[in-house]
Design a protein that fits this description.
Elements lengths: L1 H6 L3 H5 L6 E4 L2 E10 L5 E7 L11 H7 L5 H15 L7 H18 L6 H5 L5 H7 L4 H7 L12
Antiparallel strand pairs: 1-2, 2-3
């Protein structure tokens, strides 16, 4: 749950990760997330910095343990939703709500701190194509700054 809350990834995006998905650039650890195939079958990736609250999950060994003997993300999704319902009984909270909380925390932080809203970039949503053509992506440093909006979730790890 913590990993999903702090990365904003979809079930299938988490399921595709492995130890080769972890990288570091300019001292910033990140997860390389496969997002889509472009023309010609070339895969496209986005980099999500690891928030300090989940650095201990960064090696993805926990995910490799879950994936042993399982072929699809369905098992993972059902298991996570069961865990959520045990942790937060009598609610309609689901895995996808974690993604919504991630988005709200990032958007609020960016607005409150006069930063460019990087919510779409971090969630893997399409952005302004004209801007992307000229800007050529967003730096890891800028993404890491936006992830400070997730600092509010530190109480969940105590």
């Amino acid at each position: 749950m913590m990993f999903a809350l702090h990365t904003g990834l979809r079930f299938n995006e988490i399921w595709q990760l492995d130890s080769k998905s972890v990288g570091e650039e300019d001292g910033i650890k990140f997860i390389n997330v496969k997002t889509a195939k472009q023309k010609g079958g070339v895969s496209k990736y986005r980099q999500i910095p690891l928030h300090k609250n989940i650095e201990y999950l960064g090696d993805l060994k926990w995910l490799e343990q879950i994936k042993k003997g399982k072929e699809s993300s369905d098992y993972f999704g059902k298991r996570l939703n069961r865990h959520i319902h045990k942790s937060i009984p009598s609610t309609n909270v689901s895995f996808h709500r974690l993604r919504g909380n991630f988005a709200k925390a990032i958007k609020d932080y960016c607005l409150e701190n006069s930063l460019a809203d990087l919510t779409s970039v971090l969630l893997g949503h399409s952005t302004d194509l004209a801007t992307d053509t000229y800007a050529k992506g967003v730096s890891l440093k800028a993404k890491k700054e936006a992830l400070k909006g997730l600092d509010i979730f530190y109480l969940l790890i105590i």
